[in-house]
């Protein structure tokens, strides 16, 4: 075991502290949001521990075999990074679609839900770091650097546990993810709000507007996305839809917050046109493909419902080249620059306060320039720096979370020339 008990206890106490950062933020008037509500699922709330399903039969993902090697990714290590093959491989019964049962956990990420439904992740939704890194490579041909980055983000934005390296892909399953619940406090899983999960999602409610349900598929939103994009979920069309969702939240959500971690939402929307399309359809991000991954069914009256079958389309082949950190960062910037919006949060009285984050977000504007070394480090900064996670709190990575992240990133992180944070 890497960590001493003392340092773990320290980490736990640091992890539950939310630092008011207003004093350091020149654009923020602290008086406006002193009473802003904390947004944390828990207990009997949607996504909380009390209602989180518990499958007593936890079966780890079977992983790959010599007969069906996919990208050859196992044990959290780099695979071949050569895609263009069919998934699931014809004849590979271990990775056929199996619908989730009532005891299985699913959450806000269609990519991971689908991976669990096909047993690239543990089917009950309690997954490990290695499963996440392997699944992203073997199924989607996500590049190793990005696969690690996303898995680290999932675990260290305190949604998961850095000692057991376990994460719930949905609701709070602390009893099963945490190495010591008393020390770690609650681990809300990917449903946890204003961490990885954030407002203005493509098909999920804002936390406040959904009364805490920020993770279920919403057919109205899927319909809006399909109408805006005309069923062609490409970069330009999704950039427009993301802008519409931002305006909607700005108008309707008195607790709307759009912080540095919201950058990830542009990354997620790029997955529709970069990771989900099939080679057998000329890599078109079309309706049949996207509705399959999202588990969407069109009803006779034109509305959309969730069919509990987020699945890989038939005869699907994955992308040929790995989708890397640089690729996704370029897509994030490209979408953002089509419809620039302000980073910050609603103050509840009609105001909107702007935030700053490192040198990338200044006065609420993303100033990172495409192609620069600093921009290449944009997503790493979300893990390694203090991130304002709502208007009145800032999440500072613990020493142990940083140590964990750096041990996983090395050496791709250093090679980019990203500033290495002090871990002592
Ligand atoms: C370890 C890896 C990953 C983690 C931890 C993760 C986590 C998440 C989380 C927390 C969200 C919710 C964000 C929000 O809308 O508020 C999300 C959304 C999303 N993810 Fe993932 N994800 C991962 C990998 C993937 C992959 C490989 C795909 C590829 C297909 C994918 C596709 C999506 C899509 C399309 C959304 C947007 C859903 C929507 O807004 O309706 N994700 N992911
Ligand atoms: C789905 O989203 C729409 C539009 O934001 C909203 O009016 C509706 O209440 C949501 N439905 C559910 C079930 O949350
Ligand atoms: C998949 O491929 C098989 C064999 O080529 C074909 O018979 C079938 O119609 C295809 N299914 C779809 C949905 O394209």
From TrEMBL:
Protein family according to the UniProt entry: Belongs to the chloroperoxidase family.
Molecular-function GO terms, alphabetical: metal ion binding; peroxidase activity
Stretches for region Disordered: 36-56
Needed co-factor(s): heme b
Domain Heme haloperoxidase family profile, residue spans: 93-330
Protein name: Putative aromatic peroxygenase
Upper lineage: Eukaryota, Fungi, Dikarya, Ascomycota, Pezizomycotina
Keyword Oxidoreductase tagged: yes
Organism: Coleophoma cylindrospora
InterPro entries: Chloroperoxidase, Chloroperoxidase-like_sf
């Amino acid at each position: 075991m890497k960590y001493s008990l003392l340092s773990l206890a320290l980490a736990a106490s640091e992890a539950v502290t939310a630092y008011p950062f207003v004093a350091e933020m020149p654009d923020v008037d602290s008086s406006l949001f002193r009473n802003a509500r904390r947004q944390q699922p828990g207990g009997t709330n949607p996504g909380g521990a009390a209602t989180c399903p518990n499958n007593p039969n936890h079966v780890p993902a079977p992983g790959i075999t010599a007969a069906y090697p996919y990208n050859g990714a196992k044990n959290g290590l780099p695979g071949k990074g050569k895609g263009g093959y069919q998934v699931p491989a014809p004849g590979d019964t271990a990775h056929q679609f199996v619908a989730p049962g009532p005891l299985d956990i699913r959450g806000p990420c269609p990519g991971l839900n689908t991976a669990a439904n096909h047993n690239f992740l543990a089917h009950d939704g309690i997954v490990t770091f290695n499963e996440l890194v392997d699944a992203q490579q073997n199924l989607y041909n996500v590049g190793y650097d990005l696969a690690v980055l996303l898995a680290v983000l999932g675990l260290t934005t305190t949604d998961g546990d850095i000692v057991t390296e376990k994460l719930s892909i949905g609701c709070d399953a602390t009893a099963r993810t945490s190495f010591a619940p008393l020390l770690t406090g609650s681990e809300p899983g990917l449903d946890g709000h204003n961490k990885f999960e954030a407002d203005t999602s493509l098909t999920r409610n804002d936390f406040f507007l959904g009364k805490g349900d920020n993770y279920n598929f919403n057919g109205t939103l899927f319909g809006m996305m399909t109408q805006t994009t005309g069923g062609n979920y490409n970069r330009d069309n999704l950039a427009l839809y993301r802008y519409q969702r931002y305006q909607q939240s700005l108008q309707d959500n008195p607790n709307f917050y759009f912080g540095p971690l919201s950058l990830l939402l542009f990354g997620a929307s790029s997955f529709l046109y970069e990771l989900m399309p099939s080679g057998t359809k000329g890599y078109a991000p079309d309706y049949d493909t996207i509705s399959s991954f999202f588990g969407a069914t069109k009803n006779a009256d034109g509305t959309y419902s969730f069919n509990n079958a987020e699945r890989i389309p038939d005869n699907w082949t994955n992308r040929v080249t790995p989708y890397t950190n640089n690729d996704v960062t370029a897509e994030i910037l490209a979408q953002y620059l089509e419809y620039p919006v302000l980073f910050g949060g609603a103050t509840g009285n009609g105001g909107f306060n702007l935030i700053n984050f490192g040198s990338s977000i200044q006065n609420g504007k993303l100033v990172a320039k495409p192609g620069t070394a600093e921009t290449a480090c944009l997503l790493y900064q979300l893990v390694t720096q203090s991130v304002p996670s709502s208007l009145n709190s800032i999440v500072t990575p613990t020493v142990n979370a940083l140590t964990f992240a750096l041990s996983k990133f090395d050496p791709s992180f250093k090679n980019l020339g990203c500033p290495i944070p002090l871990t002592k």
